[in-house]
Design a protein that fits this description.
Shape: globular
Structural class: mainly alpha
Helix content: over 70%
Number of helices: 7
Number of strands: 0
Strand content: under 5%
Number of domains: 2
Largest sheet: none
Low-confidence stretches: none
Radius of gyration: 18 Å
Distance between the termini: 26 Å
Mean pLDDT: 80
Length: about 180
Amino acid sequence: MTGILLLFYSTFLKDNTEDWVGWTVLGGSAVVGLIVGYFMTRQSMQRIGAAILAAWGGFIVGLILNESVLYLTDSTAVFWCVAIGCAIAAAIFAFVAYNHALILSTALIGSYSIVRGASLYIGGFPNEFNLINEVKNGVIENVPWEYYAYLAAIIATSILASIVQYKTLARMEEHERHPYERLR
């Protein structure tokens, strides 16, 4: 759902788009997400589902790289190449190392979501897509220090979440290791 919204708002939807269009996209994204999610839980589709999850985690890593250092290249092509390249690399990694990709992706996505959500109350975490334009247009000189503080929080939370998941996986019996075993 978030991926569709991100794609639509970065390509053709704008801030002045009618409200009903945004809600229609949100509702349609939710329906598509539920349908795709249902099919990805099937035994034959789990590696594809893991690849999609890992690709989203890789895309987030690409965003972090772009916003941290690569914004200095001042290139939209570099932005998209890095973001998409990280997503593809993560998706391939998910096929090779399924459990590791699942743990690392969910840790990163969850950590980003928690820190981004907390930042809405705390403040100071700039919008990743607007940040580069603000630096380019001289609205701000450099990436603010708050961004790097939030980045450190994302990394620390990701590491902690990964450790918890790896310890949980190590304690499980082999038949319990399937991510949907408890749902049966």
